[in-house]
Design brief:
Layout (H helix, E strand, L loop, with lengths): L1 H16 L21 H12 L11 E9 L15 H15 L3 E2 L4 E7 L4 E4 L14 E9 L3 E10 L5 E10 L9 E4 L2 E4 L3
Helix pairs in contact: 2-3
């Protein structure tokens, strides 16, 4: 019995002398939260709403899609900062989705000639001197952005170019961080960007 008691005391003493391992440090770097969906997915909501056209509509109607500007800077101010590229991506996604839905979408930025350069080739331009003189467009999808603290409010409409009548309209919110994370400082294309504080 004494032997058992000595053995038990010795075991307990040995346990208290064994050093505990320090807690492991986390090496996980938390990434800035991005929006749960892509711009293309948010624009899908706009496409669904815009496809509800009021009045007569011919399936052969030719539709163009324009860039989306800030509501208070029409024709001059695209989304900047965390929304850089958002204006053009909304345009491109609407063009893609309406084409996939079977609408007759017109690419009015198409040049008359193929342009080749040492690093790329293409036929799209925003230079009006390189585009066709006459564009036969029946409807245009256009819209505006309004920035809020957490999101851009995107308002879109399809307008009849012959009488300026709005034949369908849509609205959705796209989170500010859909194009870039919400870090306070970011580096993109060799430039440092600081978001608003």
């Amino acid at each position: 019995m004494r032997l058992l008691l000595c053995f038990l005391l010795l075991s307990l003493t040995a346990c208290s002398l064994t050093p505990e391992k320090p807690p492991a440090r986390s090496t996980v770097v938390t990434k800035s939260a991005m929006a749960p969906f892509t711009v293309h997915q948010y624009v899908g909501d706009l496409s669904a709403q815009l496809s509800h056209i009021k009045g007569p509509f011919k399936s052969s109607a030719r539709i163009a899609v324009t860039s989306f500007y800030f509501a208070d800077g029409l024709d001059s101010e695209l989304a900047q900062g965390p929304g850089d590229g958002l204006s053009q991506q909304i345009q491109e996604s609407l063009l893609t989705q309406f084409t996939q839905l079977g609408y007759n979408i017109i690419e009015y930025r198409l040049e008359n000639n193929l342009n080749l350069s040492p690093i790329a080739d293409g036929m799209l331009s925003r230079d009006i001197t390189k585009l066709r003189k006459r564009q036969n467009i029946d409807f245009v999808i256009t819209g505006t952005l309004t920035r809020q603290q957490h999101a851009y409010i995107v308002n879109a409409r399809m307008v009849n170019t012959h009488d300026s009548a709005v034949v369908s309209a849509a609205s959705t919110e796209i989170p500010i961080n859909v194009m870039w994370g919400d870090e306070k400082i970011q580096q993109r294309d060799g430039f440092i960007y600081r978001s608003e504080y």
